Amino acid sequence: MKKPISLFPLLLLMTIASCVTVNIYFPAAAAEKAADQIIRDIQKSAPDGTEPQSNLGWRSLRTAFRDLMSLGISSAHAAADLSIDSPEIRALRASMERRFSKLKSYLNQGWVGYANNGLVAVVNKSRIPLRERAGVEQIVAAENRDRQALYQAIARANGHPEWANDIQATFAKRWIANAQPGWWIQAANGSWNKK
Questions:
Q1: pLDDT value of position 58
Q2: Do strands 192-194 and 120-122 pair parallel, antiparallel, or not at all (unpaired)?
Q3: Which end of the chain is less enclosed by CB atoms within 10 A, N or C?
Q4: Is the dihedral of CA 104, 109, 111, 112 positive or negative?
Q5: Pairing of strands 192-194, 184-186
Q6: What is the rounded distance in angstroms from the CA atom of residue 144 to the CA atom of residue 175?
Q7: What is the C-alpha to C-alpha distance for residues 82 and 95, in angstroms, rounded to an integer?
């Protein structure tokens, strides 16, 4: 008599396989490197003449050396783990680079600072001359639109729109880390201080 074949092991394997969840974690380290690359490219777009004059030569040399040393590593990790290249991302970066010279002059004057949420904000509004206020607010609004769109575009380019908040949080830290001495930055508790 033929022994019946038990389907139990096969059913058990199929059940286990259907319960396996593939977790794709947010690549935090790759996001930091990608953010640094984008931020430094944007900050390099401003003419050198608007940079604060103290220790300019040494800081420029040190920044150039650091960028040169990290160029290959940074690009490789960003390309391998987090894509920051799409037509939408390129357009947003170009828009932010065109604006940065003006934004930098506001940062240098202490009118605008890097907020703790990855955006920029007006600081010390009363110190901004009346004739300049509307222009400052327009630049801040345009910059924040581009920044929010950039965070969402990076998330979409990587097939994970749900990463937009993580990407924004990562950029928030990296904008502040890349801020120049003397610029206003917002602490986690909401207070503003000069870096």
A1: 46
A2: unpaired
A3: N
A4: positive
A5: antiparallel
A6: 13
A7: 21
Q: What is the DSSP letter of 163?
A: G
* Token duo for residue 98: 């065109």
Coil, helix or strand for 121? strand
In sequence order, which residues have a C-beta less than 8 Å from that of residue 126 and are 6 or more positions away? none
Residues β-bridged to residue 121? 113
* Tokens 């639109």 found at: 145
Residue type, 78: A
Q: Name the band, by pLDDT with cuts 50, 70 and 90, for residue 124.
A: confident
Least confident interval from 13-17, 61-65, 89-93, 130-134: 61-65
Query: Which pLDDT tens digit goes with each residue over 26-82?
Result: 999 999 999 999 999 999 987 654 444 444 444 445 545 454 444 444 444 444 478
Q: Residues, the chain, total?
A: 195
DSSP string computed for 10-71: HHHHHHHHHH--------HHHHHHHHHHHHHHHHHTS-GGGS-STTHHHHHHHHHHHHHHHH
Angle between helices 87-109 and 130-157 in degrees, nearest 10: 150
Cβ-contact 97, 147 below 8 angstroms: no
8 A C-beta contact, residue 108 and residue 50: yes
Contacts of 190 (CB under 8 A, 6+ apart): 116
